[in-house]
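To assess whether ligand presence alters the predicted conformation, the chain was also submitted together with adenosine monophosphate. Input:
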Amino acid sequence: MDCLFCKIISGDIPSSKVYEDDMCLAFKDINPQTPVHILVIPKAHIASADGVNAENSKYVARIFEVIPQIAAEQGLVGGYRIISNCGEDACQSVKHLHFHIMGGRKLPENMG
Ligand code: AMP
Ligand code: ZN
């Protein structure tokens, strides 16, 4: 499958890893929008939030279990934002489910 994030999981494309376990991988966004900008992805190809179901939701659960640990390791003591863009209107550019962890400064209230 021609999926950028599947290639990052397999190691075919390098990434700046900050966390990894058997179900998920976290790495630095190549084009950071905030001082800390991490992507967390499931180690299964799920195209977007629309593709989450009863069989694969355990990946999402694991991701949300590890996000606080990643945020703490990244020094996000003041808080952080979790974003998952889903589909065209949200400008999802990589069609493998991912959660942006963004922080390191005060973020704007306006989300869209
Ligand atoms: P989205 O627009 O929500 O689909 O987010 C995709 C994100 O992936 C963007 O923030 C990109 O900067 C990021 N990205 C694209 N290619 C890479 C890569 N090779 N390594 C790390 N991040 C990437
Ligand atoms: Zn994929």
